[in-house]
Structures are given as structure tokens and as C-alpha cells.
Amino acid sequence: MNPAPCLTALSLRMLVFVLLAILLLPVWAAAGAGPVPVRVDLPLSKDDRSVLVVQTGAGEHSFSLAQLEALGLYRVSTSTFWPGDEGVFEGPLLADVLKAAGLDDVAEVRVSALDGFTQQIAREDWTRWPVMLATRKKGQPMTTRNKGPIRIVYPRDMDPQLADARYRLRWVWLVKQIEGVSR
């Protein structure tokens, strides 16, 4: 038996598979199928009610969902610390929101939730990783029932360090306020 025909058929299948994977890679990336947030072009929210207050030394900035999403929407597919909560999230990057409010140079921020929970997030986090203020999950606006309308989302699957339990409390949901903190 001559192994050449089998080898040729196997090589051809492998070549087709590799070429197909190369062709689909940009599609997968554009769909946000990976652990790194990618910019997406979605219809922006029309909700102009204030949902977030950002406190600065010079006063406060109120943002509606429409204003937040106008800063740029990103999509990430990531696991979380809670079973059944993983998924695809969309929203602006925390760094972009802080810059728009004039807090891009603070050492850390205090994030407050509707339920009274607060957590401080160091500048190192939003400069090292693309931390997101998610406004949507799987393309749908998040209600308070599903941890919205805004929640902090880290790209947990992007870096093994983000699986460390110390980052768990930084995934604040029901976000209502962010304020700059001096060290």
C-alpha cells in the first residue's frame, strides 16, 4: 500500500482547516469572541436619564447611558467569579469615562453601588487592563435585576492574574457613582 495518497488527503484537509481558521480569525475578533475587549459599532442607547455621577475636585459630572455609550462601545467575552454569570459584555472603558470626567490622572477611584457597597480601584488596574463599565450583556441593556444598569467588568480571561480572588470585590455592579481618591 502506498501511503502517499493518504498523506496527501490528510495534508489537504489540514491546509483547508488552517486557511479557514486564518480567514475566520478577524470575524471572531470583531464579534468579541475573545478575552480582549474590541471596539464594536452598535446602535447607541437613547436613554438620557442620569445613571452615573462622577465626582471630581471641581464638581460632578452626570452621565446617561447614551452619553456613556457615545464614549465608545467595547465588547468582551469573559468568565466571572460567579457561576452562570459569564458572558459577553459591552460598554465603555473605565479609562475613557474617567478621562471624559477629568479624572484620568487620579491614583484611584471609589466606586459606589446602589446597594451601598463601595470598592476602591487603583489606577494601575485601568491602565494595565481594559476595565469596562459594562452597560449591556449579550447586547441587551442591563437592568438592576441583572446587576445593571452599569457594572465593572474586568477582562478576566485575558490575564491569569485576574482570576486571583483579590480582584473579586472590584467587580462592582449596580454602579451609581465614581469619585477620585487621593492617596
Automatic annotation (TrEMBL):
<dbReference type="InterPro" id="IPR000572">
    <property type="entry name" value="OxRdtase_Mopterin-bd_dom"/>
</dbReference>
<dbReference type="InterPro" id="IPR036374">
    <property type="entry name" value="OxRdtase_Mopterin-bd_sf"/>
</dbReference>
<dbReference type="Pfam" id="PF00174">
    <property type="entry name" value="Oxidored_molyb"/>
</dbReference>
<protein>
    <recommendedName>
        <fullName>Oxidoreductase molybdopterin-binding domain-containing protein</fullName>
    </recommendedName>
</protein>
<feature type="domain" description="Oxidoreductase molybdopterin-binding">
    <location>
        <begin position="88"/>
        <end position="156"/>
    </location>
</feature>
